[in-house]
Amino acid sequence: MDGAFQDFSCGMPGFAHDRRVLRRSKFLEKVGVKEIMQGPIVNINGDFQLCPYVLGDAGYTLEPFLMVPYNINPNSTLA
Predict the structure, then answer these.
(1) What is the overall mean pLDDT for the chain?
(2) Which residues pair with 43 in a beta bridge?
(3) How many distinct structural domains can be found in the chain?
(4) Fewer beta carbons under 10 A from the terminal one: N or C of the chain?
């Protein structure tokens, strides 16, 4: 899977915050025991190694496996 993207969405019945859904997921459990998200590692230009990661929205917190938007203007309400 060279440069591949996968899209998935999960949720809980009713309203639940994104972080709560993630905390209660089998996905996070499997990441924690290093069962998933460990490879393949892609070498870019010989000097940078890129591991698999998930792209999340501003409802999540930054984790080693989870990239979230970076807000360059802390006074902005947009993330």
Answers:
(1) 80
(2) 49
(3) 1
(4) N
Do 65 and 56 touch, CB atoms closer than 8 A? no
Domain that holds residue 46: 18-67
Residues 6+ apart with CB under 8 A from 76: none
Would 73 be classed as within a structural domain? no
**Pairing between β-strand 66-67 and β-strand 54-55 as defined by DSSP bridges:** parallel
- Per DSSP, helices labelled H in the chain are 18-23, 26-32
Between strands 48-50 and 42-44, the pairing is antiparallel
Kindly state whether residue 24 falls inside one of the protein's structural domains. Answer: yes
> What is the predicted pLDDT for the residue at 33?
92
Tokens linked to 32: 């924690």
Residue range 26-59, pLDDT digits in tens: 888 999 999 888 888 888 888 888 888 888 888 8
pTM of the model: 0.64
Judge whether 22 lies within some domain.
yes
